[in-house]
Please model this.
Amino acid sequence: MTLSPLLIYLLTLLVVPGCDKTMPAGAVTDNLANSWLALGDSYTIGESVKMNERFPSQTAVALQQKGIAVSDIKYLAQTGWTTNDLQDAIRGSALLGKYDIVSLLIGVNDQYQGLDTAGYRARFTQLLQKSIELAGGEVKHVFVLSIPDYGVTPFGGGSATVSKQIDWFNSINKQVSTAFKVNYTDITAISREAATDPALTAGDGLHPSGKQYQRWANLLEASIRSSIR
Model:
């Protein structure tokens, strides 16, 4: 007797066991991985360092080692961007869906271009609200980083004025972040170690090196791991 293809298929369904969805320890599948939206400026895209030395990239590797996968990192950041520029970029981008991780580091160019702190407060608040929206309303999935102090770099020339103004802007972004109950990682103290450790500054004499970004990543990885599990 010849079995029809349809009968063969039905018999196969009866004898083939169900798919075992149990994953080995440490294994991760794409549908379990976390998506990351990295918003910011030159510090987010890692000006003057390799892509794998950017702080989001190094953080993702550290998370993977702890069993938390990041499927991909979408960067919306560019050297020289102020809060105004980032807002314009978000409006012009098709940011669809919910991101599991949203990081925000913005403000150094507001200070550098002499923009007022009151305007920064308003725009940073709007950007943070948008970040929370892009994280699906999950405030624990939003991670703000403080602005590093470029005043201590060769480019900054050890300017105490720059350092003081960076503190003004950071006091604002920290106050706003605290009010919205998002995660806040202070990396400014690490950036100031570049005053005595040249290895923390990239070859351009201005931006952080991969070594400094690794220090940021160590702090951020612990914050993310404790917030999204």
